[in-house]
Amino acid sequence: MSLTARDLSQTIPPHTLRRLAQEWLLEDTPNFDLAGLCVGSRKVKARLLCKTPGTVLAGCPFFDAVFKEVGCAVEWTHAEGQMLDSVTLAAVVTGPARCVLLGERPALNCLARASGIATRSAQLRSLAQAAGWHGQVAGTRKTTPGFRLVEKYSMLVGGVSTHRYDLSSMVMLKDNHVWAVGSITQAVADARSVCGFSTKVEVECRSEEEGREAASAGAEVIMLDNFQPEDLHVAAQALKQDFPGVIIEASGGVTPETLSRYFSPHVDVISLGCLTQGCPISDFSLKVQRPDTPVRP
């Protein structure tokens, strides 16, 4: 069963998919495809196999885009967001042999990384749901350079929040911003003067006192950074009591193993860099069928 009934691929502009696919293919084949001479352009079918049990399938639009760019067609046997419980045939790719092999590695790289992130995201979302926690598990900007769209998309497939996409999406004032300008109050005022009404301001805070200053200055989101769980619960409750409209985010040092210790009725968001950094991939392979060999599920 898919984690979501929505077609999340509709969030990605077609021109963006084309550009990414072209960049990945150019990186992998910048000039001659010497091995292409060996296989030629006869039509072949290749089976996409998922070999990691428990994988949440993600990254299908990027996989499709790569093969579309080289003139191949992809037929999926499972929907994006479905959990693949055993070694599974996930799709069949059809096209000229050399073109299937041109797209193989870039497409597999996308699918393996995306599915790994979606799988971890789904696992952490399940922990939150099982605990009855009301808030959102979220990612961070700790993404692979040039691969952020794939990784943020994979979080959506796994059912967690992407957090802000980039520096332009929301103002987040971290310790270096505050130290550079002199105070939280001044930093918030300066940011608000240019971001207007349409962009939220978040402040990274190392103490309840800093959280109070940020909320009093007009920040909509207070990040309690690197708090121990027991200290987090006390500070979050106190801030929510006096500033009920602020969003409280917990971040810093949270792992899949410790996530449940941060759940609180007073914490709205828990962000984790490990949704992308150090996240295991899911193992996929693409195998061209020998002539006259039937494709079997």
In words, what does this structure look like?
It is built from nine helices and twelve strands. With 297 residues, it is an alpha/beta fold. Helix 1 packs across helix 4 (97-131) and helix 7 (184-195) runs parallel beside helix 8. The protein starts with 13 loop residues before the first helix and ends in a 9-residue tail after the last strand. The model has no long low-confidence stretch (mean pLDDT 94).
Shape: elongated
Strand content: 15-25%
Mean pLDDT reading = 94
Number of H- or I-type helical stretches: 9
Topology as a string of helices (H) and strands (E)? HHEEHEEEHEHEHHEHEHEEE
Which key terms come to mind for this protein?
alpha/beta; six-stranded parallel sheet; 12 strands; 40% helix; 9 helices; 297 residues; four-stranded antiparallel sheet
List the helices and strands and how they pair.
Layout: H1 14-28, H2 36-39, E1 43-50, E2 55-56, H3 60-69, E3 73-76, E4 83-84, E5 88-96, H4 97-131, E6 136-138, H5 148-158, E7 171-173, H6 175-181, H7 184-195, E8 201-205, H8 208-217, E9 221-225, H9 229-242, E10 247-251, E11 269-271, E12 284-288
Parallel strand pairs: 6-11, 7-8, 8-9, 9-10, 10-11
Antiparallel strand pairs: 1-5, 1-12, 2-4, 3-5
Helix pairs in contact: 1-3, 1-4, 3-4, 4-5, 7-8, 8-9
